[in-house]
Amino acid sequence: MKRLLSGLLAFLLILSLSACADDSTGVTPNMETVFASMADQLPEALPFDAESVFNAYGVEPAACKQEIVISYYDGNCTAELWLIEAVDQEKAESIKALAEARLESMGSQFRTYDAAAYALVGEAKLFTHGNCVVMIVSENADALLDIYQTAAELA
Asked: Around 146, how many Cα atoms within 13 Å sit in the side-chain half-sphere?
């Protein structure tokens, strides 16, 4: 009886872990459409081209299916947005690590001279959704996150 119960519990544990990890089957939104929906919550900034994203952040163009990256700072406003769909889960994890390094760099940069920008970096939203990596640094981060989540649900 104990073996049967142990086997059943092990099976349920494996089943529950696989269900939790299955975020990659989610629907991927069109990043250009998401960005257009976010435009009124962001400063006017054009997205970087793929070569600029690689040169500035190390995100390889071949690792991305779609990418929208903007960065804006003028002393009064700070915003950085990454909407990147990677070609696979491994590349998504690699891109997320680059985003984490970017947030760390921004924190170090702003810590000594711009307390408001430093606070925004501390409240940044960074997550993966399937093969997508989303990073939001903005005074409107919560609203931008809602826009992304709605687009991901409707896509």
From this structure: 5
pTM: 0.82
Helices (H), 21-57: 31-38, 50-57
User: Quick one: pLDDT at residue 26?
Assistant: 58
Q: How far is CA 122 from CA 52, 77, 111, 116, 117, in A?
A: 25, 15, 10, 10, 9
Amino acid at 57: Y
- The whole-angstrom separation of Cα 141 and Cα 42 is 10
Q: Where are the domains of the chain?
A: 23-154
| Cα separation, 114 vs 57, whole angstroms | 22
Q: Please return the burial class of 58, using the count of CB atoms within 10 Å of its CB with bins 0-12, 13-18 and 19+.
A: middle
